[in-house]
Amino acid sequence: MVLKKSSVILCSAFLFVAWNALLLLYLWGRPPIGRLGEGGGAEPGGQEEWGLSRDRAGHSNLAEEMIRLADEVEIQLDTQKKLLKQIESHRAVWAQQKTPGPNLNKPTIPILVIACDRVTVKRSLDKLIQYRPSAELFPIIVSQDCGHSETARVIGSYGNQVTHIRQPDLSDIRVRPEHRKFQGYYKISRHYRWALNQVFNTFSQSTVVIVEDDLEVAPDFFEYFRALYPILRSDASLWCVSAWNDNGRDALVDSSRAKLLYRTDFFPGLGWMLLKELWEELEPKWPSAFWDDWMRQPEQRKDRSCIRPEISRTITFGRKGVSLGQFFDQYLRYIKLNTEFVPFTKQNLSYLLKEHYDETFVREVYSATLVKMEDLQKGGALRSPGPYRVQYSSRDSFKVFARNLGVMDDLKSGVPRTGYRGVVSFHHRGRRVFLAPPEGWTHYDVSWS
User: Fold this and answer.
1) Does 212 lie in the same domain as 138?
2) How many other CB atoms are there within 10 angstroms of residue 262's CB atom?
3) Could you read off the pLDDT of 16-31 as tens digits, one per residue?
4) Which of 9, 75, 94, 137 would you label with 199, given CA atoms 20 to 30 Å apart?
5) CATH (domain of 293)
6) Which of 322, 352, 382 is a domain's end point?
7) Active site residues
């Protein structure tokens, strides 16, 4: 393709040069303007055809002859201009063929804030604007559903610091009688679909980070996503980057290692980045409700993973919502928000690529000392700093161990929260612990959900 475009450009350039050479020869070889019979600018047909007047000496009017020549030159210049435009267009196509793709160093990563009727969206927007390093590289788009005027006024108060768009369809959605209480979930799914189509199709963006109006971000939130964008784009086994750790409570994370990042098979959400290519795959089959659990199904996940941090880069402050505070009082309110700025863009994050990550991860997990849960709970009998491994072999044993160790015990499509290759990694009383299946794990069992 590049050779073909190069040939077109060379041919066009040759024609341009040849045309100008012929024009120059034509003007040089033109007889001087003078007497009739000497070719002095008269064409067959004489003055009647060209409308040239002559003086008594038989000379053509010099001024009119110059005007005619000027008209001819203008026509030639117009032709050359068109030829130059063709050359430019081919050169642009050629340059595009040589361009290696998106700028991975400083990509534009829009932040999509999904809003409805919470005036506390101000808390989210204040932190986003406070920590945003560049309005050009991180434009903020607030997509509002519900038509709540007070929330709209709050969003509007930010002026050109954000772009405010409004979901036009506020009608109720017809659902089965037993799903009437879930009407909110249907509207959220409809809103997500509309908002993501706006970002990728109307605003022509290639990626986006989605946050909701009840999320507060960490100081290095933007640094985190900017550094992980090239990893997401280069590894086909990844389909998202999330700022969230489902087991991110203070007692379950290593507060001294804010730079730790992991792969996870569980879709975390709550501040996550996806590429346009993924949206083009998901949009045609986007569900009418419960979009996040739908994302966790094998048919959508297709064995792909996400990146997630040891310490969350988002926290939620929205206890009241369509989920009626589910998990909030027990888990979410205790999630630790990172406060240490980690310069991720200056670190080598290639260890997160599947080709490097899996071998190291499996070796670390299964070389860890195998202990009983009771030993971990007592703690006194464990002399080394770890890591330690607790092994589960069934859905029931996983749930028992998870509850006793303080990690979330629910599974979605057989995948535990934060799990990777069936392993849940967390801190327990100052030691790294892996809640893991037997060595040789091959796949998740959807019947465990």
Assistant:
1) yes
2) 18
3) 555 555 555 544 555 4
4) 94
5) 3.90.550.10
6) 352
7) 292
